[in-house]
Amino acid sequence: MAIFYAVEQGLFLQKEGQRLLAKKDGRLLRSIHFHEIEQVILVGRISLSPAVVTALLKRQIDVVFLTKSGRFLGRLSPMMGKNIELRLRQFERFKDKDFKRRVAEAIVQGKIENQRLLLRRINRKALGLEDAILRLKALARQAEGVEIETLRGIEGTAARIYFEALAKGFNETWEFRNRERRPPKDPINALLSLGYTLLFSNVLCAINLIGLDPYLGCLHSVDYGRPSLALDLMEEWRPVIVDALVLSMINRKVINRGDFESKQEGIYLTPEGWRKFIAQFERKMNEVLTRPEREERLSYRAYIESQVRSFVRDIKGKEKYKPAVFR
Fold it and tell me: Which string of DSSP letters, residue by residue, matches 85-135?
């Protein structure tokens, strides 16, 4: 199964038999069978025929809309999973403050441990990151047994320490001092923002596939229109998928300054830059690794879905949620 990305501005997607066609100015640029598509991601000015919309909904293929700069806009998705009993159990479980606090603690500790892992890897070049690594270890310990508001503060402190240290791992010709979200002011922040958006769409797709309510989370506060659970369950993956990928692309010169363009509001990828990043992101998501505690071989994308199912087992009281922590 493939993720179908439509990046070329002005594309028109139409249906012909059992195939999805991507055309521009009447020219066929790509054709793929619907049964090969797992998800469709549309970037910027892309048009869909009514027949394509119907076909995607009938086949329960998730469609994600992003702006040209990579910001998440929304989704076209089939009806929510039919497992109403699971969602009722989820709502009931989230009334338990101890459950929410415990899961939030696991998420924060898992994210910090994976941040430490990445810093340890890049510190093999003797970059002087020992202090940051030790401070993160102390923060992970401080996250034990505290309330959710305190956990959010610890997570924020850890992020500042982490990104200041991570900046030293990039080739020094690239300017990156710390994380800046909207709008990104430098190419590395632009790549991080795009990577997090694509990661979020993968986590959200898994949550909807399994039948949970994505708006009811533990660590991220519940607010109107905020998919808090998806934001929660993507946290542990940020360092090992997105941050590691951006480091690799920059330092191995997979992407260069010509792949970015400066606009009044920030720095963004060119269409060619988009294609490079998507290719590398998909390579990363399909990379097969061994799940440490189970000696199970699976891709990052399958691992994310497995973690969401692990969260479901916690909701049902069968096991306690453990983040995916890498060594």
Answer: HHHHHHHHHTT-HHHHHHHHHHHHHHHHHHHHHHHHHHGGG--S-HHHHHH
CATH architecture assigned to 84-315: Up-down Bundle (1.20)
At residue 75, the pLDDT reads: 85
Specify the CATH superfamily of domain 2-76: CRISPR-associated endonuclease Cas1, N-terminal domain (3.100.10.20)
The Cα 304–Cα 307 span in angstroms is 5
Give me the residue label for tokens 């898994």: 206
Mean pLDDT split into 10-residue runs, the chain, 327 residues = 88 94 92 92 93 92 88 79 85 94 97 96 89 97 95 96 94 82 84 94 90 93 86 97 96 93 83 93 92 80 95 95 91
Domain boundaries, given as residue ranges, for the chain = 2-76, 84-315
Residue 120: phi, psi to the nearest 5? -65, -40
Q: CB under 8 Å to 224, separation ≥6 — which residues?
A: none
Q: Which residues pair with 298 in a beta bridge?
A: 289
Which of 5, 42, 75, 6 has its CA nearest to residue 227? 75
pTM of the model: 0.91
Phi and psi angles of residue 259, each rounded to the nearest 5 degrees, phi first: -90, 5
The pLDDT of residue 124 is 87
Distances, alpha carbon 181 to alpha carbons 141, 186, 197, 269, in Å: 28, 10, 11, 15
